[in-house]
Amino acid sequence: MKTIFEKSNGIDGINLTNEISDISFIPKSFLRNEIGLPQLGELEVMRHYKGLSDLNFCIEKGFYPLGSCTMKYNPKVNELLSNLEGFNIHPATSDTDAQGCLKLMYNLQNALLEITGMDAITLQPSAGAHGEMTGMMIIKKYFDTLKEKRTKVIIPDSAHGTNPASAKMCGFDIVEIKSNSKGQIDIEALKAVLDDDVAAIMMTNPNTLGIFEEQVEKISELMHANGSLLYYDGANFNAIMGYTNPKLMGFDVVHINLHKTFATPHGGGGPGAGPVAVVEKLKEFLPTPVIDFEQGKYYRNYNLKSSIGSVKDFFGNFSVFVKAYAYILMMGKNLKKASKNAVLNANYLKEKLKKYYDLPYDEPCMHEFVLSGEKQKHDNGVSTINIAKALMDKNTHPPTVYFPLIVHEAIMIEPTESETKEKLDEFIGDMIDIAAQCRNNPQVILDSPHTTPVQKIDEVTAARHPDLKFKS
């Protein structure tokens, strides 16, 4: 059999491989004598990959109440639109030849500014955490320009886990403050740590407990009086669209998760997009380029005098921009209705389930809420992870568990606006059934899942003695 380096006439005399006269520089262990590919027909190959696909769980197959991640339905028309021929151009295409794409990005920028209330925006960051880091870099450069050495960032204990990491990566020290009995920022605790070294506070509103920070205007007043800034983590933005916005709350920097709020694919590592919007005084610090319009032409503007520089190759995840813009155009003023239904769905589930699981903060919630499996663990030895595994047998993706850290045995549930009352009632029934089994037959839950391709695993041994194939 010829090696892949040997000359082949291929099809109709076309050379399909490169002719390399000397391959002695390649170690023999890297060379194959035989290819060893299985001989299969197209139908067998198709069935193989379809079988692998069927093993994956996705929102098209069942309920996906992944708290703090807004796994809403992604309209299929968005995929079609993002694959239109005119959008599949090389990222290095000149402005002159990319007017359609630049116009879409410009219009998306304006739409996001209207929705957030902010004054200027970059589309570059490729994820929420990337947006966080970009925002922290902007805040850092702002104070550097003022020649103020501010070294601290305040982060509530209900914040997203990436917040302290993003601030730390930008050189800030983290100051954590506790929540009060209502699951909101403790104002007195905030006052106690405010000093001249504080650059900013990073907040999510509603917070990770799904509770709206009722004193957000007071927090903004305190921070700005201290010369500090407010950063808005937009991961929970799906709860407030059309009702309020970060600018009205007093925030200076905000990132928006297009892959959460605006119905673009989410999960599996991407693709994502985390645009960052700022108030007027921070405009000149945005990463470049931003998309501008002048004399009838759209162009990439690199002329920001204090820019932090580019934060991503080229200009962001363009296919995500297309899908998000299409979603915004389709929804229009109904974006407000999406938030309304997300909040309604979450409160409906909370009220129905709080009789069967602990509810640490019994407050009206926004788009999500956090239950606790503490009762089941204490009474029956069934932990939250067991409850999550049992849900897999119900054709439901488990909610986020063990987060936020301030709730023991946390079960964070976000139904989004996509789900019908019938599906919510089905989920309620499943959760009540699991609670009953925890009492009456806990071993069934402890042995879950029973129906998945990979069933119960020994997680302790897996963590302590991982089987790392790449090292074998």
Structural overview:
With 472 residues, this protein is of the alpha/beta class. It has two domains: 258 residues, 3-Layer(aba) Sandwich (Aspartate Aminotransferase, domain 2), CATH 3.40.640.10; 126 residues, Alpha-Beta Complex (Aspartate Aminotransferase, domain 1). It contains 16 helices and twelve strands. The strands form three sheets. A seven-stranded mixed β-sheet has the order 1-7-6-5-4-2-3, with helices on both faces. The protein has a three-stranded antiparallel β-sheet with strand order 10-12-11, with helices on one face. The longest helix is centred in the C-terminal third of the chain and has 20 residues. It starts with 41 loop residues before the first helix and ends in an 8-residue tail after the last helix. The N terminus is likely disordered.
Provide the fold topology.
Blueprint (H helix, E strand, L loop, with lengths): L41 H14 L20 H7 L16 H18 L3 E3 L5 H18 L6 E5 L5 H8 L3 E5 L9 H7 L4 E6 L12 H10 L3 E6 L11 H4 L3 E4 L1 H4 L14 E3 L11 E5 L2 E5 L16 H14 L3 H19 L15 E4 L1 H7 L3 H9 L7 E2 L8 E4 L7 H20 L1 H5 L12 H6 L8
Parallel strand pairs: 2-3, 2-4, 4-5, 5-6
Antiparallel strand pairs: 1-7, 6-7, 8-9, 10-12, 11-12
Helix pairs in contact: 2-10, 3-10, 4-5, 11-14
